[in-house]
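Q: I'm a student working through a structural biology exercise. My instructor gave each of us a protein and asked us to get a predicted structure, then write a short paragraph describing it. Mine is CARD domain-containing protein. I'm not confident about reading structure output yet, so if you can add a plain explanation after the tokens, that would really help. Here is the sequence I was given:
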Amino acid sequence: MNAHPYILIIYLYVAESNSSRNEEGTFRSDIAYRVMTEYTGMIKEKVGLYPLVDRLVENRVISHVEKDQIIDTSTVLTADQRMDKLLSLLKESIKEDGEDFGLFLEIIKHVDTKRADRLAQTLLDKYKDYYVI
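A: Happy to help. First, here is the predicted structure for CARD domain-containing protein. I'll explain a few features afterward.
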């Protein structure tokens, strides 16, 4: 069987991610929220606003109305403040459902840069660190 290398990478990533989930196979929202809160600055440095907002809409984490408010450049909000607003919505979603953390990891892995890959791994490693505590 000749599987595409990208598919194998996704499979390995998902398999590794599953090992750090709780008994039900989901990410714990309290731990995922803590990681997101502590690493907000790093996320802002390594992930762009527009690709992230589009993918979060595609995956129904935020609504089209929320997206429009975030990307509206006619407001007095700076790009940094708009990213803060987006990450705040994302963190609230993760607080409600830890699986959104896993979805976020998948989204940033699709950015397809080494920086994004390292960010996803850092967030997952930190989640694992808190999970065993």
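A: Here are two points you could use in your paragraph. Helices lie at 5-18, 29-38, 40-46, 49-58, 64-71, 79-96, 99-109, 114-132. The radius of gyration is 15 Å. It's a good idea to check both against the output above yourself.
Q: Great, thank you!
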